[in-house]
Amino acid sequence: MTARPLDQVRSVKVKLGLLVAASVAVASIVGTIGSAGGVPIWLSIPVTIALALAVTQLLAVGMTSPLREMTVAARSMATGDHSVRVAATSRDEVGELARAFNRMAEELAGVDRQRRELVANVSHELRTPLTALCALLENLADGVAEPEPETLRAALDQGERMTTLVTDLLDLSRVDAGKAPLDLQDVDVAPLLEAAVAEQRISGRDVAYAVEVSPPELVVQGDPARLRQLVANLLDNASRHSPPGGTVSVRADAFGDHWHVVVVDQGPGVAPAHRDRAFERFGTLSEVDGGGGTGLGLAIARWVTDLHGGSIGFANPEPGESGARVLADLPLNPTLTRTKESPMAESTLPPAAAPLPPYEPLPSLTDSTFGSFWPDDGVPGNVRVLLGALGVGVLAGAIIPFRDHGLGVLLVLLAAGALLLGTSRNRRDPFTMTCAGLCLLLSIVVVLRDAEWLVALCVLTGAGLCIIGLVRGRNVLSFVLAGIAWPLAGLRGMPWLGRTVRRITGMGGGAALVRTAVLSIVGVTVFALLFASADAVFAEWVGAVVPNVGSADFALRVFVAFFVGGVVLAGAYLGLNPPEVNRAERTPRPVAHRFEWLAPVLVVDAVFAVFLVAQAAVIFGGHDYLRRTTGLTYAEYVHQGFGQLTVATALTLLVVWAASRKAPQATPSDRAWIRGSLGVLCGLTLVVVASALYRMHVYQEAYGFTGLRLLVDVFEGWLGVLVLGTLAGGVALRAVWLPRFALFSGVVLLIGLAAINPDAWIARHNIDRYETSGKIDWTYLRALSDDALPVLSTLPPDLVECAVSLDDRTHDDWLEWNLGRSRARAAIADHAGEWRQDPVCPGQTNN
């Protein structure tokens, strides 16, 4: 059963207030702990939000689950299952609604039972006379029997028996339709009883009747037809339950402003436990005494007495009586308001039932939010995945804080990657396996390189590639949706997380398991504190085993563990239930005229051509022409535009994509035009890419080499690779492999960048520039990571201290081992004695 911690609160408004207060309190407490522990804000904010949402979910699920249960139960009842009930443990308005719903379900179950009994009883009662009537008619038709008065009388009796049953059913339908007319008149009771007895004598039953009216001239107010119906049904019931040769007594007496009708038979009687059951609709005494009947007679008798403002029931037999004794208590002057018709219905026919809508499961909040983009698919709870994610989080909390990246971080990344790949539905897909392999190569960078910017870039790229592999993205839009889906998995996966937690609690008795865990923790804490305060040795042991939960170190470790565990758990849910990111792309409507797409492309071609002409003028005109025309040096000139050229390259790809979607390609002429115009544009773009790379090279030679400039080079080169891929794909960007090619080529270029050791490459080129120009930015070199130190150690001994900082170099433990730092320490150990401690640093410039 779903936990409902707020069931004892009597108001929904108060529950909502407590929900908000609890969420705010949790967020405040967690935020305060994070701030006091020095947790970075980028780490404390997501952890705080996640915990606040978890508390909200825990408290809100108990508020909404009764409504959801009622909806599911109502749908089951609509299909005929009236045995469903909902948990009505809440004491608020929703709990009252749940209890009313259960009462309604019980009443509907009773009505359904009565309906089934009616069908069974009526079928039985109709089958007997029908069988006899058919037999008689068959004998008459075959000539076996002659149409003698006795035979026809028997057939008529069977028909009248069925007519009586149908009349009872019609009377009951009037009750159900809400029509209750009374035609009040003065009724002479003695003739009323005599006429009813005369009808019973015609039925042919071997029963005698005794009538007594006191006083004999008793006259009452009532509806003659209804009163006759009342007496007839009582006499019929008594006659059927009396033995052959028995006597049925009917007596009417006046008592003050009431009068009684008493009918007594000589049958077996009715036990007190069954007396109320006999007057229910379709209720019979057949299960008690085998008397038969449909059970409609006494129900109609009660209806008549109710119409007259009276009551009816079985009374205890008087001395000398052996059978059942039925007493109807009626007023001498019934209430006139009962003569009015009920406005409930205008017809005795029930209204036609509207067709039931097809059954659809009630969507949860997350189902309604994410819709068909991310269906839940009923993913079963997985305890191992949850425990695995928690294990990765604990491992990260124990290893990552207060250590530089190295072998420990690689272990966390490998554990997380193994869990994500193991839970993925697509783990056997070649694309997913390729992504996993590239992620492994990106992860290895954390133990090979010390440059934090490179490690961070590789880890983030690996995370994005991991998610794309889990969802099997095929195009750029799916890549973007995959990146958005990871943080949203914390919301989408709540139902799955709830199912997983219920599986855990189901293993140990739910609330009992929680209580046991809490009591155990409290017991260990209390006695450990007592013994620690009583014994110094025990206190030392406890201090060595139990972390200081009040320390800032412990707070940071908890935040890291929670953050990493949550991120891994969200990724695992993506693997178990990936969203539908690869929806069919809507086919664009091509434009009607060729010039609508061709003219813009040709204009862009012309602009690119003019730009390249300007580049050629600079190349052939030389520095003098550039200075005379623009007033800029060549270094200033190339610095002015490489960023813009990079943007222009990216926009060119966008132009090719848009034009290829809008251009009709039905005719060979159209295909030739689009390939020609866009092919020219891509060719010119490659020249622009080369120009941008050349500009960056000239700028670096003039002002120095930095990591950012190297990244721009790599990015521009990647755009050039995409342009080549576009040309290979037919200049239309319709090749299905092109988005994944762009993804993999970018990752491979990043891995290649890590392989060349960028900080060492930057250091080498800056040293080479210093040797030729005498200019160098010593401050920037000192800020480089340990990856560059083996290269910087090749400087003359009196200049090494200008480029290398030897401060704060402590020995790493094995979890911090990193190849870049290890090589840096080896270089320092080999040459530290040769380096000048107070160097003079010439040629200082700013990069």
Automatic annotation (TrEMBL):
Cofactor(s) the protein needs: Mg(2+); Mn(2+)
Location of the protein in the cell: Cell membrane
Transmembrane segments: 12-33, 39-61, 383-400, 406-423, 430-447, 453-471, 512-534, 554-576, 597-621, 641-660, 672-694, 714-734, 741-763
Domain Histidine kinase stretches: 121-334
Entries under InterPro entries matching the protein: 2C_sensor_his_kinase (IPR050980), DUF4153 (IPR025291), HAMP_dom (IPR003660), HATPase_C_sf (IPR036890), HATPase_dom (IPR003594), His_kinase_dom (IPR005467), HisK_dim/P_dom (IPR003661), HisK_dim/P_sf (IPR036097)
Keywords recorded for this protein, A-Z: ATP-binding, Cell membrane, Hydrolase, Kinase, Magnesium, Manganese, Membrane, Nucleotide-binding, Phosphoprotein, Protein phosphatase, Stress response, Transferase, Transmembrane, Transmembrane helix, Two-component regulatory system, Virulence
Gene3D superfamilies: 1.10.287.130, 6.10.340.10, Histidine kinase-like ATPase, C-terminal domain (3.30.565.10)
Domain HAMP: 61-113
First-tier enzyme category under EC: transferase
EC number: 2.7.13.3
Topology with respect to the bilayer: Multi-pass membrane protein
Keyword Mitochondrion: no
CDD domains, per database record: HAMP, HATPase, HisKA
Gene Ontology molecular function terms on file: ATP binding; phosphoprotein phosphatase activity; phosphorelay sensor kinase activity
Catalytic activity: ATP + protein L-histidine = ADP + protein N-phospho-L-histidine
Predominant cellular place of this UniProt entry's protein: membrane
GO cellular component entries: plasma membrane
Name of the protein this chain belongs to: Signal transduction histidine-protein kinase/phosphatase MprB
Species assigned in the record: Aeromicrobium ginsengisoli
